[in-house]
Amino acid sequence: MLFKNIDLIDENLQIQKNMFVGVESGRIAYIGSEKPEKDYGEEYDGTNKLLSPGFVNLHTHSPMTLLRGYAENLPLGRWLNERVFPFEDRLNCDRAYYGTMLSIAEMLASGTTSFTDMYFFGDGVMKAVIESGAKINFGRSIVSFEDEDIAKNDRFQEGVYLTEKYHNTEGGRIKIDMSLHAEYTNRLSIIEQFGEYTRGRGQINHIHLSETKSEHDECKKRYGKTPARLFYDAGIFDSPTVLAHCVWVEDSDLELFCEKGVTVAHCPASNLKLGSGVCNTYKMLEKDINVGLGTDSAASNNGLDIMREMYLAAILPKGICNRADIVSPEDIFKMATVNGYKAQGRTDCGVIKTGNRADLIVLDMNKPNLYPDWNVLNNIVYSAEKSDVVLTMVDGKVLYKNGEFTTIDIEKIGSEVSRLVRKVASEVQNNG
User: Fold this and answer.
1) pLDDT, tens digit (0-9, with 9 covering 90-100), for 275-324
2) Is the pTM of the predicted complex or chain greater than 0.85?
């Protein structure tokens, strides 16, 4: 495909006007102000449009779209135990497939090209990813309240199985991470064995950390150290690690993140909605810690819209610190793009430059909310909406265009989701 007469965000986050971008074999093959002589196939007229790197959702639980609106106005503990866990007990691979397909459709329509997922029923999730064409880093989270041999844990075994079957398949679109659910859902012996197993394997670790004050404080009471220090001492940070939430981390924890190159997945909407608090991202940015953006699940957000996360991530530090200049639109845009891809181990994504993967989105700039264009990046962070996305491309393949999906039958998916969630709710009620 050849994008013509289109503005774009270059690798220095500057806006280049009326450009041509050629895509070939899944990669960006040409960028220039003149139309190339080479034929790149279909031509896309980019008049009044902007080409941007695709967004990364760095922390979510995609099958949980099935629970959107099902568990509301409860703190995290009650939200999980009273509503979420009983519903999840009735799920299976087929049901997870439909929930994931719905999530992917929502993400593609709002400009997300890759997501980092933590859940179970991995075969169902993988089926959805393979069919849809999206990118994923998937981790089967481990939960164990027993002092057991981790190799005998069925959740760990599923993670190993998924790695062997799917890691780096589909041309690299699929990557399998290793995942611990959290400190409070695992015994110390499991945490230590997890650190020993993952060290040096090259896979990414994905873990919830210090999401709530009670989680953070209870860990200090149990072990005399923060969750971050506990994981550090267990050797978990010796592997590339993505830590979700980090709302209650301490300054000493940030030093550990700096030392080990840990990434934080900031989930502002979910943390606010569950009453968990606000992550101190401004301190992390000051220390040059890699920070990406996540939505968490549609059960706690209730959307999967990275643009909304960008807006919240931009304005929350300003209000908390009474400093309008504490984070910049450039900081926030990087969180949503190149920082997220870096955390996923995808170094050839997230920036529009020749040779990189063609994970691209097009925004319609001819919208009332995007005029005037004093500063396009400011507009994207502060005033753009998911409906402004008119095209989403992954590895050079158009997956969404002008409200239509090329790989997903959204009417079929929506109908099946509506049917099965009522069935699951009935099963939960009858079982209870």
Assistant:
1) 999 999 999 999 999 999 999 999 999 999 999 999 999 999 999 999 99
2) yes
Residues 6+ apart with CB under 8 A from 14: none
Query: Is the separation of the CB atoms in 46 and 361 below 8 Å?
Result: no
Q: Which two tokens stand for residue 367?
A: 């919208």
CA 409 from centroid of its chain's CA atoms? 23
Question: How do beta strands 55-60 and 49-53 pair?
Answer: unpaired
DSSP state at residue 387: G
Q: What gap in Å lies between CA 89 and CA 405, rounded to an integer?
A: 31
How confident is the model over 387-411, as pLDDT tens digits?
999 999 999 999 999 999 999 999 9
CA distances from 98 to 64, 78, 116, 280 (A): 10, 26, 18, 35
Give the gyration radius of the chain's Cα atoms.
21
Cα 400 to its chain centre, rounded Å, is 18
Q: Is the dihedral of CA 64, 65, 70, 72 positive or negative?
A: positive
**What integer pLDDT is reported at residue 72 of this predicted model?**
85
Residue reference for tokens 């931009």:
314
Q: Which regions in the chain score pLDDT beneath 50?
A: none
Q: Please check whether residue 184 is in contact with residue 218, taking contact to mean a CB–CB distance below 8 angstroms.
A: yes
* Residue 161 in tokens: 């199985």
What distance in Å separates the CA atoms of residue 357 and residue 353, rounded to the nearest whole number? 9
| Strand pairing report for 43-45 and 27-32 | unpaired
What's the rounded Cα separation, in Å, for the pair 281 and 195?
26
Give the list of residues 6+ apart from residue 63 with CB closer than 8 angstroms, or none. Answer: 91, 95, 96, 99, 100, 103, 119, 121, 124, 125
Q: Quote the strand ranges of 278-345, DSSP E.
A: 290-293
H/E run at residue 122: helix 122-132
Rounded to whole angstroms, the Cα distance separating 370 from 338 reads: 23
Instruction: Copy the structure tokens of residue 317.
Output: 């530090």
